[in-house]
Design a protein that fits this description.
By secondary structure, the protein is mainly alpha-helical. Helix content is about 80%, strand content about 0%. The model has no long low-confidence stretch (mean pLDDT about 90).
Length: about 150
C-alpha cells in the first residue's frame, strides 16, 4: 500500500507543482473558477490524502506531515472558494489559497529532499509569502474592477 501511495503522491506532486502558477494566473485573469483551478484543487487533495496514508509507515520521521497536509488542503480549498464567488477582495483568497498550497508543496519537496537541513522550509515560505503579500497589497487593476 505504501509503494502505491508513494507513486500516486509523487505523480500528483509533480502535477501540483506544474499546475500551481497556471491555476493562479488563469483564475485571476478569468475572475472565476476554471478547469485549471479545479484540477489544481483535486491534485492537491490527492497529494494530501496520499501523504496521510504514508505517514504511519515512518511516523517518527514524518509525523509533522499530517498537520502540513491538512493545512495545505485548507489553503487550496480557500483558493477555490474565493474563485467560486469573486467580489470585493476575492483575489486575495485566490492568491493566498492557491499560492499557499503551492508554497506548501515546494516546502514539502525541499524538506524531504534535504532532510538533514531543516532550515530549508524557510526558503519557499519567506520568498513565496512575500510575493503573495506584495501582490495582495498591489493588485492588478483587472482583479479589482467590478465586472460590468
Amino acid at each position: 500500500m505504501r509503494d502505491i501511495a508513494l507513486i500516486v503522491h509523487v505523480g500528483a506532486g509533480v502535477l501540483g507543482v506544474l499546475l500551481g502558477i497556471p491555476a493562479i494566473v488563469v483564475t485571476l485573469r478569468r475572475r472565476r473558477l476554471n478547469w485549471v483551478g479545479e484540477a489544481f484543487h483535486w491534485v492537491i487533495a490527492v497529494v494530501c490524502l496520499t501523504a496521510l496514508v504514508m505517514v504511519p509507515y515512518d511516523w517518527k520521521r514524518l509525523w509533522f506531515f499530517w498537520p502540513v497536509a491538512l493545512a495545505t488542503y485548507l489553503f487550496v480549498y480557500l483558493g477555490q472558494r474565493a474563485a467560486e464567488a469573486p467580489g470585493g477582495l476575492w483575489y486575495r483568497g485566490v492568491l493566498r489559497g492557491y499560492g499557499g498550497a503551492w508554497i506548501a508543496v515546494w516546502t514539502a519537496i525541499l524538506i524531504t529532499s534535504f532532510f538533514d537541513r531543516p532550515w530549508t522550509w524557510a526558503i519557499p515560505l519567506v520568498v513565496g509569502s512575500s510575493i503573495i503579500e506584495w501582490l495582495c497589497l498591489k493588485p492588478s487593476p483587472a482583479w479589482t474592477r467590478q465586472p460590468g
